[in-house]
Amino acid sequence: MNTTNLSTPANHPNSLFGKAAIVTGAGQGIGFAICRHLITRGAKVILNDADPTLSNQAAASLGPNCISLPGNAADIPFTSQLVNTCVQHFGQLDIVIANAGLTLFGDFFSYTPESFSKVMQLNLAGTFFLAQAAALQMRRQQQGGSLLFTSSVTGHQAHRHLAAYGMSKAALEMLARNLVIDLSPYGINVNTVAPGATLTERTAGDPSYEKTWSTLTPMGRPASVDDIAAAILFLVSPEARHITGQTLIVDGGWTAISPGPES
Fold it and tell me: Can 165 be counted among the known catalytic residues?
């Protein structure tokens, strides 16, 4: 997408001109929309995806202010590489959005240790150690910063066959609350956004997805990726500097009544 005519003026209160950001899991879907919104507000972005083709194509489509760094965000040394690359290219690190996540459905009684480990390694360990590496860099810079974790409504409401995934997302929200203690003295805020049903390339593969979730969602439709990206961009913007340790649920009201697809 050409963002030339969509950029936010540098003097706008939502401007992110001069800021440098990392977004994981950004080859498509919500992560890609986040990168696009960051760039339209003037930020420079390291775009990460585990799929090198997706990562490279996505970054190329966003122009010279976006650099692709493919790799596995569950790999702890790679999280430090993300931070180091951002600093090498842009001179600083101001925003980190840990969006990469893995969903592995499975019945509780037959869920395997291998599936459990994969979910926890990416969703929890990858996020934790990326946040650690980023916060160390932000502390050295002495200019504050913003961390954002992508959670899920399944961290708030039970969903069939997602016990491990929901557990990991609830844990991310507790991580954000706990890090308030460590990060606030350095001017670093940390929050989470919990998306509900969202139309992405992945959910588009289910022909009944949009119809089902339009019926179940009080606002009458599932979220778009831009709905989620806009919420995330608010929490990493200057206007949200005094918001920290919070979770913003973006689900069109679903968790208020929580009907499941089987209903």
Answer: yes
Does the 4-254 domain belong in CATH 3.60.21.10? no
Catalytic, out of 151, 165, 209, 237:
165
Directed axis angle between helix 163-183 and helix 127-141, to 10°?
20
| pLDDT tens sequence across 146-187 | 999 999 999 999 989 999 999 999 999 999 999 999 999 999
What DSSP assignment string belongs to 14-66?
T--TT-EEEESS-SSHHHHHHHHHHHHTT-EEEE--SSHHHHHHHHHHT-TTE
Instruction: Examine the residue annotation and report whether 209 is marked as an active-site residue of this protein.
Output: no
pLDDT tens column, 246-260: 999 999 999 999 776
Q: Which of 135, 134, 139, 17 is nearest to 81 (CA)?
A: 134
CA distance 241 to 171: 23
- The pTM of the full predicted model, rounded to 2 decimals, is 0.92
> Is residue 152 flagged as an active site residue?
yes
Considering the candidates 152, 168, 209, 237, report the single residue annotated as catalytic: 152
Q: Rounded to whole angstroms, how far apart are CA atoms 55 and 73?
A: 13
Per domain, the residue ranges of the chain are 4-254
Put residue 69 in one of left, alpha, beta given phi > 0 → left and psi -120 to 50 → alpha. Answer: beta
Given 19, 169, 209, 237, the catalytic residue: 169
